[in-house]
């Protein structure tokens, strides 16, 4: 009779110790992932934002350039000033520089895709914005920016993180 009680008790004890080991392993892997992400991610959000602005300008000027029309570009200092203001906005000011840079880099990649695919030559401002907002790759990229902090990002919040104000302001 004692053997029947001993075996279940032993299994429970082993299971408890096994859970602790798995929790420790997960915790160590999480810490390692977080550290590697922090070390390998550039954190110059303003430079990333200026790059994004240039990509947007390149896309919007593509139809004119294709027709041989020269389109002036906005100066880096003007773009940098706009970016500083954007990064101070309520959508970005609570984020780390690393998270800001990550979110903006996702958008740079999106605009690079628009440029390389030829979408910029035929699209409109409205279609560019819509394609960004509905692009699941971009949304996943932005979600991944917050995954190391276990931050959940709603679709509504993702939409607020897109930087389209440069399109609207013009020069």
Automatic annotation (TrEMBL):
Cleaved signal peptide residues: 1-18
Alphabetic keyword roster: Signal
Species of the source: Leptospira ognonensis
PROSITE patterns: PROKAR_LIPOPROTEIN (PS51257)
Name this polypeptide is given: Lipoprotein
């Amino acid at each position: 009779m004692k053997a029947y009680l001993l075996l279940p008790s032993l299994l429970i004890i082993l299971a408890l110790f096994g859970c602790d080991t798995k929790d420790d392993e997960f915790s160590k892997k999480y810490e390692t992932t977080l550290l590697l992400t922090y070390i390998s991610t550039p954190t110059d959000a303003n430079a990333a934002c200026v790059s994004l602005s240039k990509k947007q300008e390149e896309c919007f000027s593509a139809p004119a350039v294709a027709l041989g029309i020269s389109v002036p570009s906005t100066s880096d200092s003007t773009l940098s000033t706009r970016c500083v203001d954007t990064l101070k906005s309520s959508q970005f000011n609570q984020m780390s520089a690393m998270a800001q840079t990550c979110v903006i880099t996702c958008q740079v990649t999106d605009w690079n895709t628009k440029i390389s695919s030829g979408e910029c030559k035929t699209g409109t401002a409205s279609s560019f914005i819509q394609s960004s907002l509905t692009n699941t790759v971009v949304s996943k990229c932005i979600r991944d920016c917050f995954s190391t902090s276990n931050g959940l990002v709603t679709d509504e919040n993702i939409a607020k993180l897109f930087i389209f104000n440069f399109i609207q302001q013009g020069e």
